[in-house]
Design goal:
The structure holds two protein chains of two kinds. By secondary structure, chain A is α+β, with helices and mostly antiparallel strands. Chain A has helices at about 15-20, 20-30, 35-45, 50-60, 110-115, 130-135, 160, 190-200, 235-240, 290-295, 340-345; strands at about 1-5, 65-70, 85-90, 95, 100, 145-150, 155, 170-175, 180-190, 205-210, 230-235, 245-250, 255, 265, 280-285, 320-325, 335. The chains are: A alpha+beta, B mainly alpha.
Chain lengths: ~350, ~200
């Protein structure tokens, strides 16, 4: 596995200063001064920033970067002296992954849509917020603490994690609990490989995933909208299911910050919120973990969160979904049980009342 | 304020009120409505209906505070623009969102309180729009005023509809709820004041 970029020469030992070219790094500092400009944009918040973010983050072509302008003010308010600035995040290709048959016949959602329409409350609750706010987030260097009921309880680097198993590209359908969907070409390694590598003890029944919680670079965690850090979980057998993926990239490139860099969970038969992003801890536990969304609304979000067209969210229907990128007049498509992955995952829930265990 | 000046204000309202629609059309033609264009149009038309509703409801408080009686003459125009955006909102829902699949729409309205409340607000707006012409005002006489007090209930339903939309972060809808509460508060204050005055007299 090699990450190629103009700036990182030794992929296994990337310093943050190498990921971001110096001039651009300095540019980021300058943008802090544009706070007041952001405030003006914020005051005009009624003009949704959605399309603006799409323009900003999606304008790039292959191999180029993304020019990210600031539409929102960072919390550190500095008086406005500089001109509106922009931040350049280099897009890095991943090489050395293998293509797989997963979703080979699916029509991919556009890169621009996947990277500008995100639910990632650590960077704000608007769909366009993460693409704009995540520019200051630093996904490298990164370590992940493997802990709890395992023989190999230790902290590993993201580079170590990526060596646990060969990287694969898998095209998965992604179904959000808000009834929209995408088709995403992830790159990652099967979660089962990590589980086997960690050697769980007999007491390990569940796995808890804990996300980064850094107020300095993640403006969303400064407000208690959710009980930070973001926590998700799987039953051990779910984690061992071949579909469960630890994603480190998409569209042949290193995972963008707004999509959960450097590593996130992908469980395509479950609603998107199960996919913990920017994972810092993977904890093997005996009892079912109390996950963030369950804590926030136990009558609306369950631990399993399996895609199920027959069990509605209390406030909206789950029987159909809006495919992202299909256009204004495309309408909805029917949602499938387990998001169409029933053959691969259905047997894990035999005998479980899915109306109660939603 | 003479009639000519009032007409100028009305022209300004026309231009302002049509700007959000013009923007949507512009963005639509430029393929610039974002990743989820249906949601974009649905939210935008809904939000503008609510904003114009609050503007309409603020005309009486403005009159009470500034004693500029003429502002009430703008109420029919803003109220109808509220109805116009509400119509666009529900058309987006029925057509672009649900593709005229009536069975799904009926189920969605019946099963989900959020949709039911929004739909209720829209139903309440229909008689108000229908009786907004001078003929009906004259014909209904005192009943007209009673009928149009329904707008208060409509406004509460609209805000609740917005509050129940969001998954978690209720900040934005709460701003609108606060604005509505303020407008109600001003009305109640003046009502209380005038009732005291009449007691004294």
């Amino acid at each position: 596995m090699i990450i190629t970029s103009k700036t990182a020469t030794n992929p296994s030992n990337i310093k943050p200063s190498e990921i971001t070219p110096r001039t651009l790094f300095e540019d980021r500092r300058a943008l802090m001064k544009t706070a007041s400009i952001g405030l003006v944009a914020g005051a005009a918040g009624i003009w949704s920033t959605q399309s603006k973010a799409a323009q900003i983050a999606g304008g790039a072509t292959e191999g180029a970067g993304r020019l990210v302008g600031r539409a929102n003010a960072p919390a550190v308010a500095v008086k406005a002296t500089a001109k509106p600035s922009s931040v350049y995040i280099p897009r890095q290709k991943i090489t050395g992954y293998t293509k797989t048959a997963y979703g080979a016949d699916e029509k991919l959602t556009k890169y621009q849509d996947i990277t500008t329409y995100n639910n990632y409350y650590e960077f704000g609750t608007g769909k366009a917020d993460p693409a704009i706010e995540a520019v200051l987030f630093k996904p490298r260097p990164w370590t992940i603490s493997i802990e709890g009921e395992v023989k190999k309880a230790k902290t590993i680097s993201i580079e170590d994690l990526m060596k646990i198993a060969p990287l694969e590209e898998r095209i998965y359908r992604h179904r959000c609990v808000e009834a929209w969907s995408m088709v995403i070409p992830w790159i990652g390694l099967p979660l089962s490989n990590l589980v086997k590598w960690a050697e769980p003890t007999g007491n390990a029944k569940f796995i808890e995933f804990i996300s980064a919680n850094d107020p300095a670079t993640m403006p969303g965690v400064r407000s208690p909208i959710l009980d930070w850090p973001y926590t998700e979980g799987l039953r051990l057998d779910e984690a061992m299911n071949p579909l469960a993926l630890l994603a480190v990239g998409l569209y042949g490139e290193v995972l963008p910050n707004q999509n959960g860099a450097p590593v996130r969970l992908v469980t395509p038969w479950k609603y998107g919120f199960k996919g913990a992003k920017a994972i810092v801890k993977i904890r093997f536990v005996e009892k079912m973990p109390l996950t963030t969304w369950v804590k926030s609304g136990p009558n609306e979000y369950g631990f399993y969160a399996n895609v199920n067209p027959n069990v509605d969210h209390p406030r909206w229907t789950q029987s159909s979904e809006k495919p992202i990128g299909a256009g204004l007049f495309a309408g909805r498509i029917k949602t499938k049980m387990f998001n169409g992955y029933a053959d691969q995952v259905g047997q894990m829930y035999a005998g479980l009342d899915l109306k109660k265990n939603f | 304020m003479n009639k000519q000046k009032i007409n100028l204000v009305k022209v300004a309202i026309w231009l302002l009120a049509l700007t959000p629609l013009a923007r949507l059309v512009w963005l639509g033609f430029n393929d610039d409505l974002g990743a989820n264009p249906v949601e974009f149009v649905e939210r935008s038309t809904g939000l503008w209906a609510l904003v114009i509703l609050l503007v309409t409801l603020s005309l009486t408080p403005v009159r009470l505070i500034t004693r500029q009686v003429w502002v009430i003459q703008l109420r029919r125009l803003t109220g109808l623009f509220m109805f116009f955006y509400a119509c666009l909102h529900i058309t987006t829902y029925v057509w672009l969102d649900f593709g005229f699949v009536w069975a799904d729409i009926v189920k969605d309205i019946a099963k989900h309180p959020r949709i039911l409340v929004g739909f209720g607000a829209f139903l309440l707006a229909i008689p108000l729009a229908a009786t907004s012409n001078s003929y009906m005002i004259k014909r209904l006489k005192t009943n007209w005023k009673k009928l149009h007090q329904v707008v208060y209930l409509l406004a509460i339903l609209a805000v609740v509809h917005f509050l129940w939309l969001v998954k978690k972060d209720v900040t934005e809808p709460l701003y609108y709820a606060a604005a509505l509460a303020l407008l109600f508060g001003i009305r109640l204050y003046y009502q209380y004041k005038s009732s005291k005055k009449s007691q004294l007299a």
